[in-house]
Task: inverse folding
């Protein structure tokens, strides 16, 4: 029995190595869809996009709070603790004092637009790239996070 499985391993070894090599993502279809709106599996996953904040932030923090916490919009509470939010999940870091972290508006905007630019393995949906949230929505949410102290 031992000899048989040894032979099988020797025969299969190169095949497994070859197929692992073939999985290298040449396009971005290997990225998870991470989407609330795109029909996952039916259309190709959108590539990670680095979007830079244009001009001054000019966001409305109260509107940002509403969008971030609406279950059918940002739904950030599924993963993050946030100021004024109920029933938070814990997969993402606590954002209730984000305004004290010293992060810039620009880096926060880029991260919410598409967190895959920071961590390709992230669980966080690419809110801007997948058009779940608009430019204005993200500006308002950044204003809300910066005001959370
Ligand atoms: C499915 C879970 C999930 C959802 C939903 C989600 N996030 Fe995240 N978020 C994460 C995880 C996990 C991280 C940690 C970064 C990483 O993935 O490496 C993170 C990180 C962040 C960070 C960076 C924190 C830091 O200290 O650098 C910000 C800002 C953020 N999320 C904002 C949001 C906002 C705003 C929303 C809603 C519009 C949201 N997230 C929705 C999972 C999520």
Result:
């Amino acid at each position: 029995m031992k000899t048989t499985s040894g032979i099988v391993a020797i025969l299969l070894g190169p095949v497994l190595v070859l197929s692992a090599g073939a999985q290298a993502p040449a396009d971005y279809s290997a990225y998870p869809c991470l989407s609330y709106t795109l029909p996952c599996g039916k259309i190709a996953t959108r590539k990670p996009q680095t979007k830079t904040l244009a001009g001054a932030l000019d966001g409305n923090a109260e509107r940002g709070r509403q969008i971030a916490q609406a279950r059918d919009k940002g739904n950030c509470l599924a993963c993050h603790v946030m100021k004024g939010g109920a029933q938070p999940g814990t997969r993402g870091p606590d954002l209730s004092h984000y305004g004290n972290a010293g992060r810039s508006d620009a880096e926060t905007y880029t991260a919410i637009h598409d967190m895959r630019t920071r961590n390709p393995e992230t669980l966080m949906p690419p809110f801007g790239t997948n058009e779940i949230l608009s430019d204005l929505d993200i500006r308002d949410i950044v204003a809300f996070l910066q005001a959370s102290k």
